[in-house]
């Protein structure tokens, strides 16, 4: 389901991040007016705007440099232009003409000395989106330092030093209440619907006891369906109840229903049109969040894998890139992906036992220099749109893809007869040859751009095993770099850009926690045996298109080096059970079954 671009430095890549983050540190207003006598007041505001053609996401962090605030805070500013706030989070935001006020939520009324609060909002504008530079906190101008605020009169203060009238409530729990790695030390939920399909296959019981993710790939999947869909009929509550009954410690859902979904491919287009962001929020994310927040499930670690392929598509598959699509241009211009992911992270991240891992593509997509940092940046933009990077527990790579976990017989530093493997046709100047090195390095990049240093990575190992008789058992002895790489590589695809029902693939590492440094878990997010897309057009009512990358006779496009697709024949639509593929995956499992 993953449409990677090939990105070699031989191609000219122009990339302007139209959604640029501009942070303004505000200081400098001279006038300091005290509203509370005797209280030393002072504050600092950092304001940033991620702007696109008609709107932007504002992110505001206010730091209280004065005495502790215990009964609520209000941050105010005025816009210079016609900016109009449409939605806010982590504060109640109201606007009157150009004047905006943001009032603390009841659960976060206090702001200790030197403590910060962050809130965000979406807004529309036309013309120029000029950042405001003057802010107040509880009526006091934020100069960036503690104002000397003598009592306004020598009379007895009209109000005594404040004490909270209502104690801060404890919900939602702070992000710090979550465990660092939700996979550690507990058993995963086994989806009975996938188990039944696996068990119905000869030999399937050897693997059916592994935890796999539950894909919420349409609105109807929340309540459960009549069984006519390709994915089964249990709804979110059914799965959570079953997880409790199993005594599972964690359960994995895939949040996968963005407006204009799968903009660079056709096989997993979904039900929501490009402009259906409001429906995504109200009919999809809100109901999921309501169920996941039910205290009945508080003891479960609920893990959401958030929106496969979406944000990376905005980096590499917009026009100006080889094989870019108009659909991706649309989703970049209308903000639907960034705002949708931001909304999902915000709503789901607010729940104390819920963990968000955002999709970060795979090495054969993001591993080129031209894509690496821009992807980290757009992931950060979505997290900022959610109000806080704390809404992100980590990232997942290789979801539903086939990239080898470890290339055993060569690394990125290997040279053959003086020629780097990076120059081989297979590696094509990528900086990574496998998913583990990519995941660990991308984690560092994500921390460098602003994510918490506690983030962990997941790697989908459901179908990247590449065992069986075609697996190389030693490094090639060839002195030709292409022959060396092609004979040595574990990943046996025709091209690393191939993604649909790959011929020769096997089950990969079984799901487990803490397998390597920086990796929270190996997971099976794509349930083995579920198709990536149909080999020919199959009419359906799920919005699924026919992508020729799933047709074994297709000779490719710019994104796979004009190679054969490597897809298995006779595949059903994405998500539907594909027995021949499941049998191949078991036969080529590595480690072997
Ligand atoms: C499909 C989804 C399906 C998922 C898991 C995706 O490619 O679009 O409908 O739930 O794969 O099999």
TrEMBL record:
Report the enzyme's class at the first EC level. hydrolase
Query: Signal among the record's keywords?
Result: yes
Q: Does the keyword Disulfide bond apply?
A: yes
Give the matching InterPro entries.
Beta_cellobiohydrolase, Beta_cellobiohydrolase_sf, CBD2, CBM2/CBM3_carb-bd_dom_sf, CBM2_carb-bd_dom_sf, Glyco_hydro_6_CS, TAT_signal
Q: What is this protein called?
A: Glucanase
Q: Where are the transmembrane segments?
A: none
- The catalytic site is made up of 262
| Membership in a protein family | Belongs to the glycosyl hydrolase family 6.
Q: Which UniProt keywords apply?
A: Carbohydrate metabolism, Cellulose degradation, Disulfide bond, Glycosidase, Hydrolase, Polysaccharide degradation, Signal
Comp. bias regions, Pro residues: 158-175
Which regions are flagged for Low complexity bias?
A: 146-157
The signal peptide here is 1-39
Q: CBM2 domain: which residues?
A: 36-145
EC number annotated for this UniProt entry: 3.2.1.-
Question: Per the record, which residues fall in region Disordered?
Answer: 146-188
């Amino acid at each position: 389901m993953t449409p990677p671009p090939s990105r070699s430095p031989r191609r000219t890549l122009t990339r302007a991040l139209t959604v640029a983050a501009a942070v303004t540190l505000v200081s400098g207003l001279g006038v300091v007016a005290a509203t509370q006598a005797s209280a030393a007041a002072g504050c600092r505001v950092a304001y940033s705007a991620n702007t696109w053609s008609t709107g932007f996401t504002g992110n505001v962090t206010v730091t209280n440099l004065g005495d502790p605030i215990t009964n609520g805070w209000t941050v105010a500013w005025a816009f210079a232009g016609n900016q109009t706030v449409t939605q806010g989070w982590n504060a109640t935001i109201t606007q009157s003409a150009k004047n905006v006020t943001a009032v603390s939520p009841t659960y976060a009324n206090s702001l200790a000395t030197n403590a910060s609060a962050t809130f965000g909002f979406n807004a529309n504008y036309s013309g120029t989106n000029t950042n405001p530079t003057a802010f107040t906190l509880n009526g006091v101008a934020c100069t960036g330092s503690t104002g000397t605020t003598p009592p306004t009169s020598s009379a007895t203060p009209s109000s005594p030093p404040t004490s909270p009238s209502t104690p801060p409530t404890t919900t939602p729990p702070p992000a710090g209440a979550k465990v660092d790695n939700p996979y550690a030390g507990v058993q995963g939920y086994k989806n009975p619907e996938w188990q039944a399909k696996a068990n119905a296959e000869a030999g399937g019981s050897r693997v059916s006891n592994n935890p796999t993710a539950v894909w919420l790939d349409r609105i109807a999947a929340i309540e459960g369906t009549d069984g006519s869909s390709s994915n089964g009929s249990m709804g979110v509550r059914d799965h959570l109840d079953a997880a409790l009954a199993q005594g599972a410690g964690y359960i994995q859902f895939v949040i996968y229903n963005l407006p204009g979904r799968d903009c660079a491919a056709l096989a997993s287009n979904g039900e929501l049109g490009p402009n259906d962001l409001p429906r995504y929020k109200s009919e999809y994310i809100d109901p999921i969040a309501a169920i996941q927040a039910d205290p009945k499930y508080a003891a479960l670690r609920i893990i959401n894998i958030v929106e496969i392929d979406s944000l990376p598509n905005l980096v590499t598959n917009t026009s100006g890139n080889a094989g870019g699509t108009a659909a991706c241009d649309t989703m970049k211009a209308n903000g639907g992906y960034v705002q949708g992911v931001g909304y999902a992270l915000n709503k789901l991240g607010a729940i104390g036992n819920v963990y968000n891992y955002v999709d970060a593509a795979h090495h054969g997509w993001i591993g080129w220099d031209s894509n690496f940092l821009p992807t980290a940046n757009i992931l950060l933009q979505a997290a900022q749109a959610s109000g806080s990077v704390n809404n992100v527990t980590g990232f997942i790579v290789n979801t539903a893809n086939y990239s080898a976990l470890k290339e055993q017989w060569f690394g990125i530093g290997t040279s053959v007869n003086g020629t780097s493997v990076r120059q081989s046709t297979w590696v094509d100047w990528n900086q990574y040859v496998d998913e583990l090195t990519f995941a660990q390095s991308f984690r560092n990049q994500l921390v460098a751009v602003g994510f918490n240093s506690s983030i962990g990575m997941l790697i989908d190992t459901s179908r990247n095993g590449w065992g069986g008789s075609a697996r190389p058992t030693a490094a090639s002895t060839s002195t030709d770099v292409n022959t060396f790489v092609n004979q040595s590589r574990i990943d046996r695809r025709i091209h690393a850009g191939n993604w649909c029902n790959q011929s020769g693939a096997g089950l990969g590492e079984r799901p487990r926690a803490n397998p390597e440094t920086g990796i929270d878990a190996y997971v099976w997010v794509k349930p083995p045996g579920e198709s990536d897309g149909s080999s020919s057009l199959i009419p359906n009512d799920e919005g699924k298109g026919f992508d020729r990358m799933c047709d074994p006779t297709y000779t490719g496009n710019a994104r796979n080096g004009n190679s054969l697709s490597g897809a298995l024949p006779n595949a059903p639509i994405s998500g539907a059970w594909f027995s021949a593929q499941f049998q191949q995956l078991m036969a080529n499992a590595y480690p072997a079954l």
